[in-house]
Amino acid sequence: MEKLKDVKLNKELSDIKPNEKVLYDAIILSQASLRQGTHSTKTRSEVRGGGRKPWRQKGTGHARQGSIRSVQWVGGGRYGTPVPRDYSKKQNRKERRLALQTAFLNLYNEKNIMVVDEIKMTTPKTKEMVAILNNLELADKKVLVVLPELDENIILASRNLGNMMVILPTEMNVLDLVATDVVLTTKEGFASIEEVLK
Predict the structure, then answer these.
(1) Cβ-Cβ contacts under 8 Å for 3 (sequence gap 6 or more)
(2) Number of C-alpha atoms within 13 angstroms, CB side, residue 36?
(3) Among residues 175, 25, 23, which one has the least CA distance to residue 89?
């Protein structure tokens, strides 16, 4: 496995001006879409019981009460608590593409895209994958491996490594790109990335 030094982005991509505002919006959108929004509690109109006034209005010495399911009662309804909602946001297609291009260009401009001739493993051993990372001096970094085709040995060998993720070029997303230190790919993978980012 050799590290290639002469790989350059095509002019169409290298001429793009990164837009940090669009990238920020895309990150917020991606994080918001991960929220389920299923949190829910019951208000006083939804809890069970409390159909009648617990005691008469005057003369008991108690404070006046209209229901034993008011918010101040144990077992009563809740006030101002969460209800199910949709957290998803919207961003048009051109902005989403620009955000992905910006995230990748930031890594490219900081020289955090590493291209090798090929990544091959004979066995699905984590030890072998760790040796590859050590050889490339990536053992202590977060690594996003982008391959044109997924190899079962690579997937099995990397799934126990917390600092490494293996994806296809079509699965690239803003969150993964901004969270990684280095993108590791092959020459064919780099060409596929360029096609996806166009």
Answers:
(1) 114, 115, 116, 136
(2) 3
(3) 25
3-state secondary structure of 92: coil
Angle at 176 between CA 173 and CA 182, to 5 degrees: 120
Q: What is the pTM (predicted TM-score) of this model?
A: 0.79
Distance of alpha carbon 190 from alpha carbon 63, whole angstroms = 74
Q: What is the pLDDT of residues 32-90, one digit of tens each?
A: 999 999 999 999 999 999 889 999 999 999 999 999 999 999 999 999 999 999 999 99
Identify the CA nearest to 191 among candidates 17, 10, 14, 12: 10
With vertex at residue 143, the alpha carbon angle to CA 140 and CA 147, rounded to the nearest 5 degrees, is 150
Tokens in use for 196? Answer: 């996806």
Distance between first and last Cα of the chain: 28
pLDDT, one tens digit per residue, over 18-34 is 999 999 999 999 999 99
CA dihedral 125, 128, 129, 135 (to 10 degrees): 180
Q: Which two tokens stand for residue 197?
A: 């980012």
Q: Is 29 helix (H, G, I), strand (E, B) or coil?
A: helix
CB atoms within 10 A of CB 115: 20
Q: Are 99 and 25 in contact (CB under 8 A)?
A: yes
d(CA 47, CA 150): 52
| Distance from C-alpha of 120 to C-alpha of 12, rounded to nearest angstrom | 31
The strands making up 164-167's β-sheet, listed across from edge to edge, are 113-116, 182-186, 143-146, 164-167
